[in-house]
Amino acid sequence: MNEELRPTTRRAVKTPSIARHGKLKRRSAWKTIATIVASTLAVVLVSGVSVGAYAAMDLVQTAKPTVKLESEKVLEGVPDIGAIDGGVNLLVIGSDSRQGQGMAFGDPDEETAVLNDVTMLLHISQDHSHVEVISFPRDMLVSVPGTCVDPDDPSDTLSALSSVKINTVLSYGGAENGGMDCVVKTVEQLVGVTIPFAGVVQFLGVAGLSEAIGGVDVCVAEPIEDEYTGTFLEAGPHTLSGMAALQFLRTRHGVGDGSDLGRISNQQVFMSSLARKVQSDGTLADPVKLFGIAKAVLSNMQLSSSLGNIPMLVSIAKAMQDVDLSKIAFIQYPTSYVDGGGAVAPNWLADSVNQALQQDVPVVLPTVQDADFASETDPNAAPPADPAAPTDAADPAAPADPAAPAGPPAAALPDGVSGQTAADVRCSSGRTLDDQ
């Protein structure tokens, strides 16, 4: 059995009280779908605007039963007409469960697990001018609050825990919510923001989405060879859909440094390309294509009850549909390896990401990033503009329009924080078998 298909079945148990660490202020399934899920949710939500009422209701009925989040109480009284009033925090949880996924990923009765190997936070700003998508490494150590439901006694809660890998948190909590609320509470505690929206997605939703959208174009800077996922791609451009797209997202051994951190960078290459395609080829104006995308995803995902109604989907869609690609930032939550390896922990750079989220300010990604995780620039991308060339920009000496909104100042993230915007065209940094 290959490594990618060897999760360990986990069961949350009631544990004795363990001293938990304080919130780490110093210092975004599974491992494989991180790249498209955040943009996927944007597409799914936009579809609520474009398809008819009957089709939209069909989408909701296709989805799995919803889950009530404790944090949803902040939404009481929020109007459900037009774009949502204010910002949105939505947690996308990628489950590696094989249940309902056929035999393509192993025997669902023997090889399934309850692990959130992808955890991504989608943040839409209060003024709807920028979006941040934070990817949390699956092996990142976190503290789990003592408010998660005990699966053996739903009237009780589990003890607080410290130094727990984030990808195990989905296994905590009662059977009724499958641990979704526990993952939400853990990320809320980590980054310091309230998250009233969430969804859990499985493998086939990713494959179906990539097919419904007509494939996603990716650039590979160096050959990718991964026997574990069966991913073999020559250097150059590729259009991936279905299982090929899914395996591209799953590959770890074939990209970057062979770790989950390298995989996140690879996934961001895919996700930014997906966002560009959605905005450039008329997808947002094609009700048939949007319906196919939405149904492919919703049939393989479980939503929080806050997302399980058409007006809210429409409201969030309207908040996202006009965001400029350069204002959509995909960020890898900053971590460092702990002593002995095998896990990572948030480092001092993480506080800059937390502060940007808490203060709801757009981010400016550093031009210098960790070389192990940053992808190479696409050699076929358009060259940068000549700074000496004339432009249509307004005279810098002209006074600013006093009626124009100033907008919040951007937060420049420090060197070492890895990520890219949806406008950045980059290539995946591959690895051959000789490098592994």
Summarize the structure.
The chain has helices at 34-50, 53-62, 180-191, 203-212, 242-250, 260-280, 287-298, 310-320, 350-359; strands at 64-67, 88-95, 116-124, 131-136, 141-144, 149-150, 153-157, 161-165, 197-201, 216-220, 224-226, 231-233, 236-240, 301-304, 328-332, 335-337, 344-346, 363-364, 376-377, 411-412, 419-421, 426-428. It has 436 residues and is α/β, with parallel strands linked by helices.
List the strand order in the largest sheet.
1-14-9-2-3-4-15-21
Count, helices = 9
Uncertain stretches of 5 or more adjacent residues = 1-54, 100-106, 371-402
**CATH architecture term of one domain:** 2-Layer Sandwich
Helix content: 25-40%
Mean pLDDT: 73
Q: Any idea of the CATH topology of one domain?
A: Nucleotidyltransferase, domain 5
- Give the CATH class of one domain: Alpha Beta
Task: Give a verbal description of the structure.
It is a single chain. This protein has 436 residues and is an alpha/beta fold. The protein has a domain at 20-203 and 279-366: Nucleotidyltransferase, domain 5. The protein is built from 9 helices and 22 strands. The strands form 7 sheets. An 8-stranded mixed beta sheet has the order 1-14-9-2-3-4-15-21, sandwiched between helices. Strand 11 (224-226) and strand 12 (231-233) form a beta hairpin. Helix 1 crosses helix 7 (287-298) and helix 4 runs antiparallel to helix 7 (287-298).
